[in-house]
């Protein structure tokens, strides 16, 4: 007698047309667990933070983190061989996570990394102590210095994040050259510079002294050339593959390009056979098992296997990071909850409300298609809870 056919998990999901439709879930994909030594690319995941749902205070105004769950997720990323980029925009930096809490997050993450052999950790520094409209160049320099000194005192490596305050007060490209030269010259170890585009943060429009990305790229390259001994690499997050390829080809030989392109990362990481990008990606937060397995395949010479694993994740990434791109964190935290990495879907600043029910239903579908919902029963149960709270019968 043939074994009975396993009945697929079913759930009704909103269609976006005022109705729901039955959705049959797929089996999760099995991803081989790799280690950092298995990779021939540097791969950093910008990690999200987990809010404390039982904290008192105003959740839109007061930052309260669940430290145990937040650090457990970082250990999960390290266990897959990925590095962690800490206290970046994925961690809601400047959108719920202030400098005081960022520094505590960095301190705890540095401590946690010491327990894991080979753990890689870079931490974001910026100027978010300042109010951008009132900023001055000396104030920007002092704010950067304070954060760099604090992180290096903890033993951390630095990602030099773009500054809203600098964007507000700089009057020319020379101002950027002056600020970056001053800060980079004081660092103990080379840093990663982060060029975050205005699609991620509208207050960063015109960064490097102008709204033309080509001219801005010239300024960023001039900063790197003038301070090359203190620059490990640059991450650009412009969601434009050609701009990244163009800049990558102009970097000094030892300076890495870290892709921040959540729309085109497989192609950029693989490279053209001559040059490639390393990775510092928010989407790696959500697709960590797939990213780990794919990177191991690439390092073994199996480029096709690399592409086959990551190709199904692209529709998910492009949806999660769709405009308004700055709300992508909601999709990442939603997926972490569906997959059981945290016990709730509550975000710092109340940003669980930043995407619609229909949007998150599509996130669910695309994660399933990529084989990334590791326990369909759990994921469907939690999705039904979410739908019920929002008045939808799943």
Keywords:
alpha/beta, TIM Barrel, globular, eight-stranded parallel β-barrel, two-stranded antiparallel sheet, 394 residues, disordered N terminus, 14 helices
Description of the structure:
With 394 residues, the chain is α/β, with parallel strands linked by helices. It is 40% helix and 12% strand. It is built from 14 helices and 10 strands. The longest helix has 17 residues, at 137-153. Mean pLDDT is 95; it is low at 1-5.
Distance between the termini: 35 Å
The radius of gyration computed from the alpha-carbon positions, rounded to a whole number of angstroms, is: 21 Å
Helix content bin? 25-40%
Kindly identify the CATH topology of the domain at 34-301: TIM Barrel
Question: What's the arrangement of secondary structure elements?
Answer:
Layout: E1 10-14, E2 20-24, E3 43-46, H1 67-79, E4 83-86, H2 99-113, E5 121-125, H3 137-153, E6 157-160, H4 164-169, H5 173-184, E7 191-196, H6 213-226, E8 231-237, H7 241-248, E9 256-259, H8 265-270, E10 278-281, H9 288-299, H10 303-310, H11 314-320, H12 328-338, H13 357-369, H14 376-389
Parallel strand pairs: 3-4, 3-10, 4-5, 5-6, 6-7, 7-8, 8-9, 9-10
Antiparallel strand pairs: 1-2
Helix pairs in contact: 1-2, 3-5, 5-6, 9-10, 11-13
């Amino acid at each position: 007698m043939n074994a009975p056919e396993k009945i697929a998990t079913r759930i009704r999901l909103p269609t976006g047309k005022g109705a729901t439709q039955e959705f049959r879930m797929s089996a999760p994909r099995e991803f081989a667990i790799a280690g950092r030594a298995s990779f021939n690319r540097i791969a950093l995941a910008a990690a999200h933070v987990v809010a404390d749902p039982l904290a008192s205070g105003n959740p839109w105004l007061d930052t309260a983190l669940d430290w145990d769950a937040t650090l457990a997720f970082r250990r999960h990323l390290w266990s897959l061989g990925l590095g962690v980029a800490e206290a970046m925009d994925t961690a809601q930096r400047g959108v719920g996570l202030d400098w005081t809490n960022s520094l505590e997050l960095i301190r705890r993450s540095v401590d946690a990394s010491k327990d894991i052999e080979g753990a890689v950790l870079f931490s974001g520094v910026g100027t978010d102590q300042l109010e951008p409209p009132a900023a001055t160049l000396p104030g920007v320099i002092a704010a950067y210095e304070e954060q760099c000194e604090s992180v290096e005192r903890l033993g951390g490596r630095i990602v030099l994040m773009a500054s809203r305050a600098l964007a507000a007060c700089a009057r020319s490209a020379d101002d950027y050259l002056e600020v970056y030269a001053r800060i980079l010259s004081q660092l103990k170890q080379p840093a990663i510079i982060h060029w975050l585009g205005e699609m991620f943060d509208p207050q960063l429009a015109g960064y490097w002294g102008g709204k033309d990305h080509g001219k801005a790229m010239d300024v960023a390259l001039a900063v790197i050339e003038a301070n090359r001994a203190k620059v490990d690499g640059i991450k650009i997050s412009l969601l434009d593959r050609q701009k990244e390829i163009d800049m990558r080809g102009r970097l000094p030989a030892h300076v890495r390009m870290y892709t921040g392109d959540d729309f085109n990362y497989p192609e950029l990481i693989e490279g053209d056979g001559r040059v490639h990008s390393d990775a510092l990606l928010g989407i790696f937060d959500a697709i960590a098992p797939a990213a780990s397995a794919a990177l191991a395949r690439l390092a073994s010479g199996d480029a096709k296997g690399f592409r086959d694993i990551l190709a199904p994740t692209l529709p998910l990434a492009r949806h999660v990071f769709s405009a308004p791109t700055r709300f992508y964190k909601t999709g990442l935290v939603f997926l972490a909850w569906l997959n059981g990495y945290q016990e709730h879907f509550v975000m710092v600043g109340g940003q669980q409300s930043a995407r619609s029910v229909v949007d998150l239903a599509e996130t669910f579908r695309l994660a399933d298609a990529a084989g990334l919902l590791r326990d369909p029963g759990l994921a469907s149960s939690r999705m039904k809870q979410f739908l019920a709270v929002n008045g939808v019968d799943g």
